[in-house]
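Sample entry (455 residues):
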Amino acid sequence: MDEQGGGPRRRRRSDAVRAEAPGPVPRRPVGGVLALLGEGPPFGPTRPGFWRSPLRGPRLTSLLGAVLLVGVPVLFVTGLLSYAAYNPDLASNDMTPDKGVLGFYLFPWPTDPPWLYRLTQGVHVTLGITLVPVLLAKLWSVVPLLFRWPPVRSLAHALERLSVLFLVGGALFVFATGVLNVQLEYVFPGSFYPLHFYGAWVFVSGLVAHVALKLPTMVRALRGRGPGRGPGDASGRGRADDGLVAPDPAPETASRRTLLGAVGLGSLALLLTTVGQSLGGPLRRTAVLAPHGRLPADGADGFPVNTTAAYAGVTDADTGPGWRLTVRNGDREVVLTREELLALPRYRSALPIACVEGWSTRDLDWEGVRLSDLAALVGAAGPPGVLVESAQRSGAFASAALRGNQVADPRSLLALRVNGEDLSPDHGYPARVIVPANPGVHNTKWVTRLGFGEV
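Predicted structure, serialized as tokens:
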């Protein structure tokens, strides 16, 4: 019986052995897909050990962020004011179609004070360039977080990462396009103005979302002592789980104070080599980073030229003895030669020219016929706005619209002379517009037609 009883038990054990025999026991794919999903690739920037600088920390990042938190809103507001100055709700000036709710704040741009656009755009460009070292240092301080693994841990984390994408991408785009426009001009596949405008809204949207998420963390970090300390860590290295402090830092070769000092000196250098283009005075000589900000000699050519006659396709035939100015209001039309314009009552205005690139001139001595007098010449009461058309054949702003308040200002001229001399060809001969507080590109050159009431 024992044998009979034992037989089946032995067979069952044999069966069990045979069942377990085929193939090796599966092993957990350590370093495979699970490791990739959990810890990231075995090398590269997703590994915390990749980032070893001992300078990174929550307080450093918060200090740089606080500077940007003050500067960026000023940049944004002055940029919006620049948009309003372009009168984008006048059809001929609107370079951002379908702006919708983004144009909610638009208002008629004033002519007083006459240096208003010079101030707002000068601050916008100068501050933007000055903040470049701060922005780059801020991005350097948080770069480990951009590669933190896994990319998305939850819905809330996904929203935070999306805000960071808008913030970082928008910041790089806005600052890069702004600097390139100042330095190189017209290097974009489309118009700089709408690209920069919409990019700024993307950037600021990301900034608002990011501040809402991170402001408490920044405040706690700023309350710590010393430039490198994080909250709750007397060693100054910050909390181990903040993702900014290197788990295995390299030997320190410079302090955080040194880094902040270098960023500050970089910003100061950019300020001193830029601000003179709009501030004027002795600093104008130091504006080496402003291509148009350092003025040539006095006279009709004593201020910068963005668009030359040759670039605009304006020939001698367009501006020679055959040139005529057509002034129109509905069915009434008057055609004038330059000699007939010179015979009309002429006035003088001391006004600067200010450009979207940030450069501006001192007050120049303009002489010409008031736009309001030309409106009265064709019976345009009010006076209404005017569509100004140019002989320009290439490039942007061959025409521009002016509002009624700009036409009515007694300092607004169809200028024939500047600084005691006839206009030079590059500055708009035989006639150009000059209006207080008007962006330079709307002070149309080589004017051939004034259409009152057509805007």
